[in-house]
Amino acid sequence: MKHKIIVTGGLGFIGSHVVVELQNEGFEVVIIDDLSNSSVAVLDGIYAITGQMPIFEKLDLREKTNVVDFFKRHHDVVGVIHFAASKAVGESVNRPLLYYENNLNSLIYILQALYKKDRANFIFSSSCTVYGQADKLPITELAAIKNAESPYGNTKQIGEEIISDTCKVSDNLKAIALRYFNPIGAHESAKIGELPIGTPQNLVPFITQTGVGIRQELSVFGNDYPTEDGTCVRDYIHVVDLAKAHVAALKRLINDDNSTNYEVFNIGTGKGSSVLEVINAFEEVSNQKLNYKIVERRQGDVVAAYADTTKANDILGWSAKLNLKDALSSAWKWEQVINKK
């Protein structure tokens, strides 16, 4: 019998790629999404890749009665992978209550439902933002958790604490928090990828939109950082590699081969790339020059962040296989498809 897995926010950028990998591995997937930051058309892309149409329910997870009713109907669920959350850092600063309500209430209601089950598995979409500017690079899971720079980052920290505290008093619930570094790219088929609404919040969609002519110019926020070329350094991981990490984590939970019921893993490549290195790599894979200019630093940006992935490599048996150029090439292919260039 197939294991039934719930993927909240499963029509989003990362969630849709995880659904593809789960279905390719033989899991039965039920997607919950309120479509506030995604499109139902993503289902067609998932079907085109896997040949399977996942079950989909449009649901607002902030409504507790909706969550209770859903788990009554899907009582045979084995696990939940939780992506559903608001994620724009700038917006979270301006609308903190929206972020706390959406990101924490939905998490609490899902955990309350799982807490009642005889056995349940939970994977949380966390972030390297919990480390802030780490004292030492590369960043291990033992690095200090710094004060959050934004309400969004704070919801990730609080979310991890809520899960940890719940697992301490629940023998039937097992959870893994995956701290992502910087997911980029798209599925090689160009059937699914990142679909930012409005102005992109992340570097690579802004690069590809500039490359395709939607944006006139890319702003590089500062070139006076203490890095090799003066621009910020990040760990850019291909979204397909990231999706495969979720499958590895889920199998660990289901197979019950971990001694503790709550674990945390960094998910990245282990390599840092500067903003200018990303731009140069994009120009190489796209065979065109990118129009960009150096502007003032952006408040809240850390100098450098890249992962020590040893724990995920050793315990999950997972490692990133795709490189920066692979990710940028797939992102560019996706951008051209959605803009019919």
UniProtKB/TrEMBL annotation:
Residue ranges the record marks as coiled coil: none
One Pfam family this sequence matches: GDP_Man_Dehyd
Swiss-Prot/TrEMBL catalytic activity: UDP-alpha-D-glucose = UDP-alpha-D-galactose
Keyword Isomerase carried by entry: yes
SUPFAM superfamilies: NAD(P)-binding Rossmann-fold domains
NCBIfam families linked: galE
Annotated protein name in UniProt: UDP-glucose 4-epimerase
Naturally occurring in which organism (per UniProt): Formosa undariae
